[in-house]
Amino acid sequence: MDEKCGVVGVALSERESARPLYYALYALQHRGQESAGIVTHDGFQQHSHLGMGLVGDAFDAADLERLAGSVGIGHVRYPTAGSVDASCAQPFSVSFKSGSLGLSHNGNLVNAGAAREELAELGHAFTSDGDTEVIAHALARNLLEGDLVDAVADTMSRLHGSYSLTIAHDDTVMGLRDPEGNRPLCLGELDDGYAVASESAAIDALGGELVRDVRPGELVVLAPDGSGYECHQLVERDRTAHCFFEHVYFARPDSTIDGRLVYDTRRELGRKLWAESGVETDVILPVPDSGRAFASGYAAAAGEASADVSFAEGLMKNRYVGRTFIMPTQDERERAVRLKLNPIKSTVEGKTVTLIDDSIVRGTTSSQLVGLLREAGASAVHLRIGSPPIVAPCYMGIDMASREELVAADRTPTEIGELIDADSLAYLSRAAIADALGASRADLCLGCVTGEYPYDIEGEATDREVVGPTAASASASADD
Ligand code: AMP
């Protein structure tokens, strides 16, 4: 099950943790709007509240009041197709012989099925079909046998895939990032404690300072009294598999991920887009909000090359319409785009326009927008996209539609340009992505733009020699 989510955990010395967690979840709201939850611990027992919808809808003042304790974790969950179900809300919590456990997960295990079977054979009963429960049971089992750090290390050796986790074992809160560092996770220092969160924007919201990213394969254990933290590098790999799409689309522009401010990366990608495929036009328009930073970089580079280009906010966004992906049918999605964005006629009438967005998935947004701009009187509409064509699904936790739905899965950029009726269409190269991220392509997960994944996924190609348990080998290791 895809989990495209936001996670947080805090340990404070003087305050209750529920409100800071609630604020942090607000800062991570873009990472998930289906459900929100908080689990706290007051030194004696665990408290939990889960609710459907946005953070503001999932909690009221009385819920926060009941969440006693100065340590806790939180979660926001992204709506994935067909599963609007309270049983999937997180943090997942269980009580077992050696205490209570709460888990918030961002990512997706590739071997969840095999690991679940293995645990079921050992007598574990599951209440949901999510892979977070698999991690919780594996960890609970290991905690019966070893100390905390060993138990986490042993659990990691059974997992294959993407996971950034915040974990509460009684009053000990931890952050754990998978060995390839696929999803982001960072550590922050607050006035009266420490926090781990998916994005640094959540640390900012708490008035804290980003300490650093949690390293791939690293466990960070926060002291329950908020006085410090311990780090354990549990697994070390030669290569990482950071998701480039976090930087392109998913994360907030004001977050710093793996040492890079997302806004700067997007502007740099915009500059590269101009360098690779700039086209002379009267106006450069961003698709709000996803194309904004790209367009500002593109326009800056275009402005340096020619004085005769203007940058305009020619499409106005209705901020009360949610992400178009929440619409279940294609027809509804098409209507949603028109509801969401409206052109300002005077900025485009009689002009040649370059429209800039971060990505094309199904092609719905761009084809609608090209139509809207033509109706508003644009004499030509060029489209420039700040990422390579998305040709394959994401198995690592980003809801990217299936192969059949992806417009670039079996079409060339020229064919897509014709389909969406643009005068020209150009995407950014893979090399430009790696360059802007200051990473080697070998250290990025580019699965959705190459069709080759850094993990062992049934029926898909991999771009590396896979280390650790694979989808097939996990059940075999049950006999160990
Ligand atoms: P589409 O209309 O299907 O081509 O989707 C492209 C638009 O959706 C762009 O404006 C992107 O910024 C945005 N987008 C890209 N990936 C996602 C995603 N995984 N979830 C929601 N929106 C996305």
Distance between the termini: 27 Å
The CATH architecture name of the largest domain reads 4-Layer Sandwich
Catalogue the ligands: adenosine monophosphate
Strand order of the largest sheet: 3-2-4-1-10-9-11
Fold and architecture overview:
- Strand 12 and strand 13 form a beta hairpin.
- The protein is globular.
- The two termini are 27 Å apart.
- It folds into two domains: 236 residues, Glutamine Phosphoribosylpyrophosphate, subunit 1, domain 1 (4-Layer Sandwich); 171 residues, Rossmann fold (3-Layer(aba) Sandwich).
- The longest helix is centred in the middle third of the chain and has 16 residues.
- The protein has 480 residues and is an alpha+beta fold.
- The strands form seven sheets. It has a seven-stranded antiparallel sheet.
- 31% of the residues lie in helices and 26% in strands.
- The structure holds adenosine monophosphate.
